[in-house]
Amino acid sequence: xxxxxxxxxxxxxxxESRHFKxxxxxxxxxxxxxxxxxxxxxxxxxxxxxTNGKGSxxxxxxxILMRAGYRVGLYIxxxxxxxxxxxxxxxxxxxxxxLIASFLAVEAKRGDISxxxxxxxxxxxxxxxxxxxxxxxxxxxxxxxxxxxxxxxDGDVAIVTSVDIDHTDYLGDTREAIGFEKAGIxxxxxxxxxxxxxxxxxxxxxxxxxxxDLWLFGRDFNYSGDQQQWNYGGRSQRxxxxxxxxxxxxxxxxxxxxxxxxxxxxxxxxPVGAQEIRSGLMMVDLPGRFQVLPGRPTVILDVAHNPHxxxxxxxxxxxxxxxxxxxAVFGAMHDKDxxxxxxxxxxxxxxxxxxxxxxxRAASALEIKEKLLLAGVTPNDRPGDExxxxxxxxxxxxxxxxxxxxxxxxxxxxxxxxxxxxxxxxARNH
Length: 430
What we know:
The chain is α/β, with parallel strands linked by helices and 430 residues long. The chain has two domains: 276 residues, Mur-like, catalytic domain (UDP-N-acetylmuramoyl-L-alanine:D-glutamate ligase, 3-Layer(aba) Sandwich); 139 residues, Alpha-Beta Complex (Protein-Tyrosine Phosphatase, Chain A). The protein has 15 helices and 17 strands. It has an eight-stranded mixed sheet with strand order 4-3-2-5-1-6-7-8, sandwiched between helices. A hairpin with a 2-residue loop joins strand 3 and strand 4. Helix 2 packs across helix 4, helix 2 packs parallel to helix 5 and helix 3 crosses helix 10. It is globular and about 60 Å long.
């Protein structure tokens, strides 16, 4: 007789302790348990992968489709403060009870099949969505695409947002290698949308070899715009005089045009009007993506953790107007291109508050400090030149220090990892 955990926290602790490999690629185990659970969706499923921009794309889709009156299920990750953020139904986080019921269902059916934390929780959330009488399901792919647990589900539409270098240990260290992994979410005969302006040949070739209906940015859909508004053009639809998405940032129109391409593809099954698109884009909200908090000094939360995202963050900081000093609260995972992130942001930051993170995969604050020094970030190297690098044991400590030192016209940018941003969010909530 198995005694199962009774709270969500206990379940998550159990799952974290159980499967020794954090990332265990391969779909056979997940597919087998999915069959036993008989997970099927009767509504359209949109699968979203890519290096950066996945979360924004999912959030815009959810926002527009909800305004059009559809009951939307959204699986998005990771979470900042509560696991429940990963499963949203009708815009609300799933309840502990609903999640526990699906955890029990997966546990009952998995038999002797070992599942990683990510695989188990993915199956549980799919199970929850399959029971929830939804009109549309949006699934964010985790690592890569081809071998990600989400890929046991066949999407009606697949979107790849951007292809850049990240997770090199698992996915390869070229855009072509990574493009192939991302293209793994495409399906024969189904629309496959890529909003990367320079789609890797490997992605294009794979889509063609399996007979997917490939929509490429610049060829099958595009956008144009001025300061006030923008327009989308697709194969069968134009959408004119749209307002800018409320998510800030340089790449948001690429993401938004992929969203409209997906709605273009699904227009017969999920019709959406112009007004719903306008208000959906205007009202979209996504924590931790160039999120500028109210109050002074200005605080920016951004989960940028690879050079491509860091370049976008640098551009967005540059567009913000003048601030005497910029403080960085920065902590990162060991397997990330930390040097590449520093290269993009070192001209934007005066004071570095670098932090350890609560994960065995994290780089230490001391290592990051050494990388900053090697990159030529020198504390107070000229008289009157105010620059510093300090190290802290936690994001909360680093943030408290930056808040103490920053003047009200300065700004604090928190970035480098979800854990960095989550640590500061949690500290601010107390």
